[in-house]
Amino acid sequence: MNTQGKNKPGAQSRTDDGHSLSLFTVFGIEVRLDISVIIIFALIVFSLGNGIYASWHPEWTLTMVWGTALFSGIAFFASLLAHELSHSVVSQHFNIPVPRITLFLFGGVAEISREPERPKHEFLIAIAGPLMSLLIAFVCTELALYMASDMDLAGTVSVGDLSVLSDLGPLATSLFWLGSINLLLALFNMIPGFPMDGGRVFRAIIWAITGDKLKATLWASNVGRYFGWFLMASGVIGLLQGQGLGSLWSIMIGWFLSNLATMSYKQLVMDQALGGFNIADVMRTHFETVDAAMPLTEFVDNYLLRSSQRLWPVTVDNRLVGAVSLSQISQLPAKNRAVLTLGEAMSPLESMNFLEPKASAKNAIDTLLKSSDEPMLVIRDGEVLGLVQHSDIVKWMALHRMPAP
Ligand SMILES: [Zn+2]
Prior knowledge:
five-stranded mixed β-sheet; alpha/beta
């Protein structure tokens, strides 16, 4: 997998953000390990030690089984890293910097700092990862076959008789498993849904044919979403049929993929549409301001229900003291709504996030997406200049004849 345009300048110097740690730097790329890797690592080692290897080698000692499982788990992450490095090196070849690679729950992500300018570059960057996984699969399998050259491994395994695997030593066993898991990795990543590698390859091809990157992204992210739904549906069917862990896993991956497809498309449309504009261009400048002394009930009846505004600056003597939002009020118990004033129900100024009028409009979108579309105030020198909420940006884009996500 690889991701583009996610990193912000200035965020690159961070060495630790609390849930991931920096391992080492290679080709000028920082390799990080997200804490969630522990879950998948434990799952892999456990399923190898407790299931697969134990059933292939009933005669092995516990130390041999778990030692081989542990080695395989580590080698698996090394091959994930090789996959991401492969994307990264090709990307750097086209002068697109890659500040870091993060290994996390669902695999690895190379943070490619911007979108490639030509479909050919996108194609080569995207295909490099799965090709590396295929290469690793080939080398591991060939090595395992070579080490077991006196056995008819390929012949017996191809007819489904796994008992022959019991004659493999620890290293050959590990290589054999790594070969098949890397083949799976290559195939999985080649699913043609954006932003999977296969989706990027698919997008690059459509982009090259039509010359329309946005349309190509729409097609590729739709395939990604449909595939995510398909995975979730097959997971639910699996659960109903009593298949436990594998089904839960496919529901999780499906959910992750469909979300990622939608988010990536939204991001790209916004980035393209809003490039060159600042927040002052897209913000709402007609808005109501409310007084802190106003009872909440009066506010709900006379303001909240009568306007499409979702965030209101709260003032005392025309001085900004905080803000109150629709989602905030909706979370208040009914009995509180009857007695509180706005001053008591609002978020105080100190605890709020603001936008700067001169900041780029793209940043506003990133911030809105991160805060699940909660509207925000635009402030300069303590004075509210406007509001930014998602629907305003959709309206602005419609006016400028841009496709709204
Ligand atoms: Zn990849």
